[in-house]
């Protein structure tokens, strides 16, 4: 299993300057290669006898001219420009496959500063990473995973440098889930997650908590003169606050997803249309503050490591409008309605708990049908509705007795 561990570095001024030079070299090389690619591709379309551009040919072309035209590239590791061209080749491959947009030029100050090292260009020794032309750089923690080290990407967030070390490791050392059964997880705005067990996780909501300070720093930055030292200082302060907000959100999501995958073997969630949800101008800020996509990403890879299963219900699965007791489906259920009574069986439902129970039922029926059909795996988007399986048991939430059925 290939996994990465992102570790904060503690470089001195000389080392931080080297990182900035290497990141700038990678950015310049990426832009140079993109311009050459566009020029050579246009020439190839006019005359097919000319060679078609590729990341391999561009790497050879750069090696032939960099000592004369770009001698400053020799001040940093050779991986910085070479890996930038390889990454451009991957970007074009994804574009032609329809998986990504056309590659764009990177602008200094706006693009993410980073460069990549191959495993023969660095080594890790407990709490230090050794880089060519630089020496040993202190890491804030040791590498958590053991195995073959493949690569490392050094990047900057605000004024801090990080090394993301990729390791090919054996996942057998990861303890399996406690297998407390199946759980449905309903994501929301007022509460980050509501479980089918009745547990409610409020969520950190760091953007909302630090919004006033963020607005104050943004106004301070807008008043500074472009290019001035004070503007650079204000920009660093604002970047540090944005990084803090992101770190608080990621930490809360890591704690939640780790707890869920450690306790439950099968987890049912919804395939939310986050892109469409943020178009609601009344809820867009609160939805973005929750981090729904990051939650699903973490949940899937952590469940996979522990041998668990994540079943993703379809985007149009009516989890909130369907009665978990009798299966009655309402025509409409506005977001403002948080409690509702089933018109058929009369059971009173909490909107979020009912949705979580329906997701748990869906996960049960999907995994049962998958096992009966010759094996199960990581459930993402089932194409067909699983066969109904009668499995009833009683649950009690908030003194309301309901009957859960996977039918």
TrEMBL record:
Transmembrane regions: none
Residue ranges of every copy of the Cas12f1-like TNB domain listed in the record: 292-359
Chain ranges of the Transposase putative helix-turn-helix domain: 1-43
Keywords per UniProt: DNA recombination, DNA-binding, Metal-binding, Transposition, Zinc
InterPro entries to which the protein is assigned, alphabetical: Cas12f1-like_TNB, RNA-guided_DNA_endo/Transpos, Transposase, Transposase_put_HTH
Pfam families listed in its UniProt record: Cas12f1-like_TNB (PF07282), HTH_OrfB_IS605 (PF12323), OrfB_IS605 (PF01385)
Top-level taxon in the UniProt lineage: Bacteria
Official protein name in the record: Transposase
Highest classification ranks of the organism: Bacteria, Pseudomonadati, Pseudomonadota, Gammaproteobacteria, Thiotrichales
């Amino acid at each position: 299993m290939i996994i990465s561990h992102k570790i904060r570095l503690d470089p001195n001024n000389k080392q931080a300057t080297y990182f900035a030079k290497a990141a700038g070299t990678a950015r310049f090389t990426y832009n140079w290669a993109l311009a050459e690619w566009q020029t050579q591709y246009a020439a190839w379309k006019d005359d097919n006898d000319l060679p078609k551009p590729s990341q391999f040919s561009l790497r050879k072309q750069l090696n032939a001219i960099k000592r004369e035209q770009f001698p400053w590239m020799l001040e940093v590791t050779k991986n910085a420009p070479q890996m930038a061209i390889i990454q451009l080749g991957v970007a074009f491959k994804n574009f032609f496959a329809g998986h990504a947009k056309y590659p764009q030029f990177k602008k200094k100050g706006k693009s993410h500063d980073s460069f990549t090292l191959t495993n023969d260009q660095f080594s890790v020794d407990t709490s230090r990473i050794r880089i060519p032309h630089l020496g040993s750089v202190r890491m804030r923690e040791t590498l958590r995973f053991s195995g073959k080290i493949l690569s490392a990407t050094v990047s900057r967030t605000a004024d801090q440098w990080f090394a993301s070390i990729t390791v090919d490791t054996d996942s057998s050392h990861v303890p399996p889930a406690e297998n407390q059964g199946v759980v449905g997880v309903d994501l929301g705005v007022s509460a980050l997650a509501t479980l089918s067990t009745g547990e409610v996780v409020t969520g950190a909501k760091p953007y909302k908590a630090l919004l006033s300070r963020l607005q104050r720093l943004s106004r301070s930055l807008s008043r500074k003169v472009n290019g001035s030292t004070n503007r650079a200082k204000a920009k660093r302060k604002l970047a540090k606050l944005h990084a803090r907000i992101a770190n608080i959100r990621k930490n809360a999501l890591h704690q939640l997803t780790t707890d869920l995958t450690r306790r439950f073997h099968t987890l049912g969630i919804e395939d939310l249309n986050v892109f469409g949800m943020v178009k609601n101008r009344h809820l867009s800020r609160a939805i973005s503050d929750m981090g729904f996509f990051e939650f699903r990403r973490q949940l899937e890879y952590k469940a996979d490591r522990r041998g668990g299963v994540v079943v993703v219900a379809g985007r149009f699965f009516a989890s909130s409008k369907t009665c978990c007791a009798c299966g009655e489906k309402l025509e409409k259920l506005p977001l403002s309605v948080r409690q509702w009574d089933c018109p058929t069986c009369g059971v009173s439902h909490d909107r979020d708990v009912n949705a979580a129970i329906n997701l748990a039922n869906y996960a049960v029926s999907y995994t049962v049908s998958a096992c009966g059909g010759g094996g199960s795996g990581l459930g993402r988007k089932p194409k067909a509705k699983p066969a109904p399986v009668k499995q009833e048991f009683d649950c009690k939430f908030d003194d309301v007795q309901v009957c859960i059925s996977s039918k």
